[in-house]
Amino acid sequence: MLTNQDNNNYSFNIDKFYKNYLKGPKIFRNREALEPSFIPNELPHRDNEIEKIAGITACALNGDVPPNFLCYGMTGTGKTATIRYLSQKIAQHCTANPPWWIYINCNIVSTPYRILAHIYNTIVGKEKIPPTGLPKDIILKKLLGLFDQTIKESVCFLVLDEIDILVEKKGGNEILYNLTRLNENLDLCRTSVIGISNKLKLMQFLDSRVTSTLDEEEPIVFHPYNANELADILYLRANIAFDEGVIEEGVIKLCAGLAAREHGDARKALQLLRKAGETAERNQSRKVLEQHVHKAQKEIDKDHIVEYIFSMPLQAQLTLTAVYLLTKYNADNVITSGDIYEVHNDLASRIPGLKQLTHRRISDYINELALAGLINANTKSMGHYGRTKIIKLDVDNELMERVLSRITRIKTHDLLNYKPILLQGDKVRVKNNVFKKLL
DNA sequence: TATCCACAGGAAATCAGGGTGT
DNA sequence: ACACCCTGATTTCCTGTGGATA
Question: Within 7 Å: CB of A132 and strand C?
Fold first, then answer.
């Protein structure tokens, strides 16, 4: 039995923590400068892109309609930041009727209906269109009326971020077609679509009716930053974010170098620097040191995994649990998609009210887990024994157990200690021996 | 060399759950 | 109450396939 005294010995003293925190050295001056949403006064190494986009959009200053255009580039190459930066600049130079800017992240606002609703609600400034229920054409009609009524003779830029995600979905081309041709049905207001894409081959997926209107201008291509360029960006932000002398020599170069290795992602570099600062703060250090960066890097990786697993639907979590159990009970196991399907069904049947899934669905989940880097899945032909995927857990077993054990339904049914029926007989061992020879 | 396994993965259909206006 | 809408998850149906084996 746990006594009060025991309890006190192990409990975290929050009062002491806060006192120490306030007494401890101050690392950040303005943490916000390292956030992805922060728009700095200058954008290093993006002069070419800024010049091109400024050229295309300048006519909005006179109330003329700028053409639609696309921006390409990998994540963290400054596409969104550049557009936001320019929108501010245009507003500064506009005396009357500044243009409207409506940002839509197609990864979050992910369906045609919601895009229309989002645009409408943004202009009105409140939730006028419900999240579902109305026919799309009705909203489109309402929207057209709203443009002429509210925005009147100004220009409205519709910025579609991560447009590639929208295009791959059904109905994506249709909504783009509608958005790029809004002007044909407007009397006063004029709209212009700016598409931001992570994928260079976006055009392949676009309908010819849409390409013709998005093709009016050369697309703007954002190249990844190299380590030196990233360092420049970091210096600039660090000057705003940190107090003077807080950053140890070499920390910024290290952050830049690590991020450059991952296709020059500025967002990653900034995140790394911020996390390193937070690590230093927690350790009551007066300075951000290189060791804090390394620690931060590890934490980011781990956070990413944990967050991703928690955000998955239960069925996907069970699929992952199946991989975990197959690994746990037979370390040198050869795991195939068929095994995962069987174990998943076994697990699902142990949770009341949960449906078992089909092969097809499990196959998709396996692909998703592989894409997220949680497992390794390679398609392999075993000749007479068919074609399948050979799957391996790509995350530390212990970490996986810790994360999975925090999922309520997995915990309450004690699934992590359950030995699946498939593993109770000889079937898997026999198959394993055959497969091992073939691999 | 034809066969055949155990799936892979695309396309379309279906279902449940959120909503609408009349 | 009713017909209808939108979405996301899943099922159904389907064709394709690499290579050991008979």
Answer: yes
